[in-house]
Specification:
Number of domains: 2
Mean pLDDT: 88
Order of helices and strands: HHHHH
Distance between the termini: 61 Å
CATH class of the largest domain: Mainly Alpha
Number of helices: 5
Strand content: under 5%
Shape: elongated
Structural class: mainly alpha
Radius of gyration: 28 Å
Low-confidence stretches: none
Helix content: over 70%
CATH superfamily of the largest domain: Membrane associated eicosanoid/glutathione metabolism-like domain
CATH architecture of the largest domain: Up-down Bundle
CATH topology of the largest domain: Four Helix Bundle (Hemerythrin (Met), subunit A)
Amino acid sequence: MDPTIADSADTAASAVTSTVATAADLAAATALNANAALDKWLDQLAYPSLITLLALAVYLLVTLNVGRARGRFNVPAPQTTGNADFERFFRVQQNTLEQLVFFLPALWLASFYGSAKLAALLGMLWVGGRLVYANGYYRSPTVQKRIPGFLVAVVASALLWLMAMIGVARVLL
C-alpha cells in the first residue's frame, strides 16, 4: 500500500474519531444545558405552584365555612336555601369555585408563556381578593362589603389572562 494513502486513511480515521468525540461531547453538553434550563424553569414554576395551593386552601376554607354555617343556621344537607345568612356562605363558596375555573388556567398559561414570578404576584392578589370578598360577604349581603375583594380578584384574573394571551400570540406570530 502506498504510504501516502495509508497516512491519508489514518488521518481520515482520526478525523472521524475526533468528530464523533466532539459530537458526543456536544450532545452531552447540550443535554447538560437542557437539563439545567429545565431545572431552572421548574424552579420558577414553584411560584405558581404555591399560588395554586393557596387558591385551593381558600376554596377549602370557604367550603368548610359552608359546613359550619349549615349547623349554625340549621340548614340540613342537601338544602341550600331557606336561611339568608346561610345562603351568603353558600354563595361565597359557589362564586369562589366559579372564579377558580377562570383563574387557574390563566395563572398557569401566564406562567408558561409570560413570567412565572409576575403571574404568582397577580395570583397573590387573587387570593387576597377572594379572602376580602368572603369576609365582606359573610358580614353583610350589601354589594359595598363584597365588591372590593371581588374587583381585586377579577382584575388579577383579567391581567393573568391578558399576560397569557400576549405570550401565546408572541409564540404563534
